[in-house]
Structure formats: C-alpha cells, structure tokens
Amino acid sequence: MREMTLEQFRSSVESGGILSVTLRAEGACFYVNAETRKGDKAVLIATHSKAPRSFTDPRKAMLLLREMGIRNAEIDASAWQPEQIEALRVSRPDRAAAMKRTNGRNRVGWRAGGWRQVV
CA 33, 36, 39 angle in degrees (round to 5)? Predict the structure, then answer.
C-alpha cells in the first residue's frame, strides 16, 4: 500500500490520478484509502508522524475530501466502534491546571473608570 501525504494526495486528485476513495473505519477512527489510476492502493498519512491520518469525526474527513474536489466516496463502517472514542482522549490535568492559572490572572473586566485586571 502506498502512503501519501496530504500534498501528494491533493496533487494526485488534481492530476486525475485517484480513481476512487473509501473512508474505512477501524475502531473509533476513520482512515482515507484510495485506488490510484496505476491500480495501487493508497492511504492518507500525517505529514510529520507518517502514521495513517485518522479522523474521529467522519464529517471532517468528508470536508477535507470535498475541499480537494472529491465528490463521491464510499464509507466502510463495518469495523466502526464509536464507543471506543473515550479511549483515544488523552487527559492532561497538568495543562488544565496551568491554563486555569493563566486565564485567572489575565482576566480583564470593565470597572468604573475603564478596563482593569480582575483579581
């Protein structure tokens, strides 16, 4: 299977090199697979990690495909397990606490005489 970055995929679509596109579900995620004019199978990958690009919301994948000019796509949801979405979420209590501290310090509100920092 050939791996394609977003730019490569977009270029292939523009040049007519993509025959068909399938959104294939696996667990809680959808992946973009394509059949090329050469008869190869291709998968859309993330630019930096080189892992298959995953979409937890199939609408986001459809919007991306539409933006590239793809108007027809098949959806294979036979292995879709949306209840697994919670397992993909990463809890970051350290970042949440830091953001609360930062946002609490930087709040600005209207007081008599103009805008002032709210304590």
Answer: 110
